[in-house]
Amino acid sequence: MEYPKSQKYNTPELLAKIMGPNPFKLQEEMLQNHKIPAGSIVCDLGSGQGLTSVMLVKDYGFKVYAADLWSEPHVNCRFFYEMGLTPDQITPVKADAADLPFEKEFFDAVVSTDSYNFWGRDPEYLDAKLLPFVKSGGYLYICVPGMKKDCHDNLPKELLLSWTPEQLAYLRDINYWTEILNHSQDAEVISIYEMKGNNEELWEDWLNQENEIAINDRKAMGADGGKYLNFIAFVLRKK
Ligand SMILES: C[S@@+](CC[C@H](N)C(=O)[O-])C[C@H]1O[C@@H](n2cnc3c(N)ncnc32)[C@H](O)[C@@H]1O
To answer: Which of 55, 65, 69 to mutate to test ligand 1, by most ligand atoms within 8 A of the CB atom?
Structure first.
């Protein structure tokens, strides 16, 4: 598929900040035909170094809160300024997705790219920890790296070249996520689907980076471990 919005972020400086398979392209595919009105207050949950957050402001016209646990808000703040954004358009927040520091029903929508699998595997999470912060009728667009078919009791040797069983426990298949999401009483599950984008291209953008995590990931992907992996997106709506 083509990624017209992501192309303008395709610079060595910006790609050096990605934390996994190209998040601009993942987010662009996930938000094709999205239903979040421009001007909405959107939480980019697990925003990392804020790349996807910048895109949400510039390409989609949202007012964004970039919420992340491991990155530093003052670093992201400087980056947002360098990208020409104002504090009125984007706010970095240090936040644990399981303990969000916002007013109830603060957000019109939530977007989360390549992060939700870190904390969202608890079936109670959505209703207890996330949906209270979203307005009724608000959309959630989430995509995660996943497995074509869960195989945690017999992990392929190719994947074990780069990742431990504990790390691979974060990657699950569509059936697993369907069960987790259907547990929610407060969300309507609009769709759960395997993303159709060009996975090799998404991975290549990441594996070309010269940081130690990307270098480590080259082992599994170089041994064709990618054949077991996919990306899974879900669209939810708060009742
Ligand atoms: C693979 S990175 C993806 C970052 C970003 N979404 C992107 O695609 O560039 C995963 C992010 O999840 C965040 N994260 C992990 N656990 C979290 C939690 N409990 N609450 C908030 N963020 C969390 C980390 O801080 C990290 O930035």
So the answer is: 69
CA distance 84 to 79: 9
Q: What is the pLDDT of residues 200-234, one digit of tens each?
A: 999 999 999 999 999 999 999 999 999 999 999 99
Which residue owns the Cα nearest ligand 1 atom 16? 118
Calculate how far, in angstroms, residue 143's C-alpha sits from the geometric centre of ligand 1.
12
β-partners of residue 189 are: 236
Structurally, at CATH architecture level, domain 6-153+171-210+229-238 sits in: 3-Layer(aba) Sandwich (3.40)
| Residue 71, number of CB atoms within 10 A of its CB | 20
CA 205 to chain centre: 16
List, for residues 171-201, the tens digit of each pLDDT value.
999 999 999 999 999 999 999 999 999 999 9
* Dist CA 133 CA 165 (whole Å): 33
pTM: 0.98
For CA atoms 233, 25, 237, 46, the dihedral sign is positive
Q: Which of 28, 98, 18, 106 is nearest to 65 (CA)?
A: 106
